[in-house]
Design brief:
Elements (H helix, E strand, L loop, with lengths): L18 H14 L7 H15 L7 E5 L2 H11 L7 E5 L4 H9 L3 E5 L10 H10 L4 E2 L11 H11 L5 E2 L15 E5 L12 E5 L2 H11 L27 H12 L1 H23 L19 E4 L3 H13 L16 H4 L3 E2 L3 H9 E4 L7 H25 L2 H6 L1
Parallel strand pairs: 2-3, 2-4, 3-9, 5-6
Antiparallel strand pairs: 1-7, 6-7, 8-10
Length: 401
């Protein structure tokens, strides 16, 4: 029975800049009287972001903002100039936008397995898939913000000639292009650690790809006087995917406090993990195994001991007004609307992860009492499961069976 007197604990709470922090940027925008179309705030935002990535990149890179990360993925794939219906490999364990971007770009999603420990589509998995069937591009995902080691993907791209675009939607501050080649798309959605309300950006060591994406965000109109097409003429079939000056203002204000907020996120994430592990018993819960830690976590995802444990936690959290979510479930290969238009490869590791994975409340400003309620709910779910196992193994239960 639901404990209706309890205040609900939300799953996520966006952490955007206060109005007073936005005001200087909004005043600049108003003075310039430019609100879109690569305005001064957008260009400044891109310059700052580009410098952050350039400091960790061994090769020159380019960067362009987009209206959102889903469009960023779609246009990055379009800029690869692949033949229609090319096969794009991506993990079955991811948000639907990764797959819909492939379809919207005119290609065929090939849904693959992930590594059982890191929960990522790895170069090794991609190599096996390419050996077993045609793969024209790879779209790995920085699952739950966990970064990819770019050296492995650089080697994969060099050795196979297959282009790679990282869906790094939730991995700002963690995913860098620290290899000679690399392309990644980031989200600036309100729920991300660098929120602009809405938006995204594409960064790549391939400057010609960034130039194509930028042109595609502006309908495909040529703005380069040195190009072989007159300025103002349509050079490619694009769309309207430009970032507005309003969103750039929010992004710049978010950048100003990012280091501080990221440290708070890391501390909260470590505290909650420690409290949950202590309540469960060390080694009972299974966390994502990452080569590098997440710089600014936005999610708290954990695997319970089994599917029954996850079901019990779901029920107890609902009764106690604690919001949880079965992230990325069902898997993409179990969604008829996608599976009917995709190639579905065997994905046993992803299926195993999906059976007992649960997303827990995580947001800055979470009250200590709310953390305690979450820990108590987990402890109760595990205790209930242990009692059920003991009852099932009792002499009375065996006789009735």
């Amino acid at each position: 029975m639901t404990e209706s007197h309890l205040t609900p604990i939300p799953l996520l709470v966006p952490d955007l800049p206060a109005p007073e922090a936005l005001m200087p940027f909004l005043q600049r925008m108003h003075a310039a009287r430019q609100y879109s179309n690569f305005g001064p705030l957008t260009c400044e935002f891109e310059t700052v972001l580009r410098a952050l990535f350039a400091a960790r990149s061994p090769a020159p890179l380019g960067l362009t903002t987009v209206a959102n990360a889903t469009l960023g993925l779609e246009l990055a794939l379009t800029a690869l100039d692949l033949p229609p219906r090319s096969r794009v490999l991506l993990p079955a364990l991811t948000f639907v936008a990764t797959a819909t971007a492939v379809l919207r770009a005119g290609h065929l999603p090939v849904l693959a397995d992930v590594d059982a420990q890191s929960w990522l589509l790895t170069p090794e998995i991609a190599l096996r898939a390419a050996a077993d069937g045609k793969v024209d591009a790879v779209l790995p995902v920085a699952t739950f913000g966990a970064p990819h080691a770019m050296a492995g993907w650089h080697d994969f791209e060099r050795d196979t000639g297959i282009p790679v675009v990282i869906d790094a939607a939730a991995a700002f501050g963690s995913q860098w292009l620290d290899a000679p080649t690399g392309t990644a798309v980031f989200s600036l959605h309100a729920t991300k650690c660098l929120p602009a309300g809405e938006g995204g950006f594409v960064v790549s060591n391939k400057p010609e790809l960034i130039a194509k994406v930028r042109q595609l965000t502006n309908f495909g109109i040529n703005l380069n006087p040195a190009a072989g097409v007159p300025v103002g003429m349509l050079a490619r079939i694009g769309t309207n995917a430009k970032m507005s000056e309003y969103h750039a203002a929010v992004g710049l204000a978010s950048l100003a406090t990012w280091d501080t907020r990221a440290a708070l996120r890391r501390a909260l994430h470590a505290d909650l993990r420690a409290r949950l592990d202590a309540a469960a018993g060390m080694g009972v819960l299974r966390w994502q195994d990452m080569a590098e830690p997440i710089a600014a976590p936005t999610l708290l995802c954990v695997r319970l001991p089994d599917a029954g444990g996850r079901d019990r936690l779901d029920r107890l959290c609902a009764e106690r007004r604690i919001m949880v979510r079965r992230w990325y479930q069902p898997l993409l290969n179990a969604m008829p609307a996608l599976a009917a238009h995709s190639v579905c490869l065997p994905a046993p590791a992803a299926a195993g992860i999906a059976m007992d994975l649960c997303g827990l409340p995580f947001y800055l400003g979470m009250a200590d009492a709310d953390e305690a309620r979450l820990v108590d709910a987990l402890s109760a779910a595990l205790d209930e499961g242990q009692s059920a196992c003991q009852s099932a193994g009792s002499p009375e239960a065996r006789r009735s069976a």
